[in-house]
Amino acid sequence: MNVQFAHKLSTAARFLGLAQARCFHCLRPFSPDAENFSASTTSPPAGFFDPAASLCPSCRDLLAPYRGPRCPLCGLPSPMPNGLPAPVPVGGYDSSREAYQGSLCGRCLTDPPPWTRAAFYGLYRQSLRHTLLRLKFDGHLYLAPLLGAFLLEAAHCLPGPDALLAVPQYPDHLRHRGYNQAHELAKALHAQTGLALVPGLLSRTRPGPAQVGLSARSRPENVRHSFAASPGVKGLRLWLVDDVMTTGSTLRAAGLALLKAGASSVDVLVVARTPKEDMDFTGNSAP
Ligand SMILES: [Zn+2]
Ligand SMILES: [Zn+2]
């Protein structure tokens, strides 16, 4: 059975109520509701992944994106005033530096990051955190397309790049784990967008101690000078992909290396952002 015929058959079965989908996240069967049901009879493009049609209603709630206020430069969520619903600027968030200078966080005001813009999908808490940990430590690589679709949704506020690249792992760590979760996310994004994914543009030159157990303050020293970018980045507008941004130290070091090697711009794209209140203890949220 070819792919197009299988898609038409499953579309017809769902339309007639004869088939249930299985939630991509919790694996429970569910009936896609009308609003997420696509009556299209054409096959989806290669690499297409639709989270709305692939998640059961409760997982859609649990994995909902963060839509609250944030620092436009590093994405750090801003406190909600008096618990009121987060104000959303007209036209959505524009993460250009010029637009929201007034809402920059304290660190970006005094020590701005090297990247131009940063986008993330959700907070590094609860279900999203658990899902990212499953990808990173349990080898659940099947989750990459779902998380890649989240990256794509988050990336809507970023101008298109010339190429994608993932924050690399040190070779010994890569050999130990067998895969780099950030690269798996970049691959999923590449599959869904066709954006160029060029391996080898950035490498890790020294492992540095693990970030786990380091206080937020000691992280920058730990990752400084630990990346090397290839001359191939010269003139490129890049999206630098990672799973989580906690203090941003790793992404700052990686972004700096890319810009020093001549990249035209670096935008940071991560699935999840750690809120400030989750960082202020040793061994913060990135295990
Ligand atoms: Zn589910
Ligand atoms: Zn900031």
Automatic annotation (TrEMBL):
Where are the coiled-coil regions? none
Q: Which residues cross the membrane?
A: none
Which InterPro entries does the protein's record reference? ComF/GntX_DNA_util-trans, PRTase-like, PRTase_dom
Instruction: Kindly give the SUPFAM superfamilies that the UniProt entry links to this protein.
Output: PRTase-like
Residue ranges annotated for the Phosphoribosyltransferase domain, each copy included: 216-276
Instruction: Please give the family membership noted in the entry.
Output: Belongs to the ComF/GntX family.
Q: What is this protein called?
A: ComF family protein
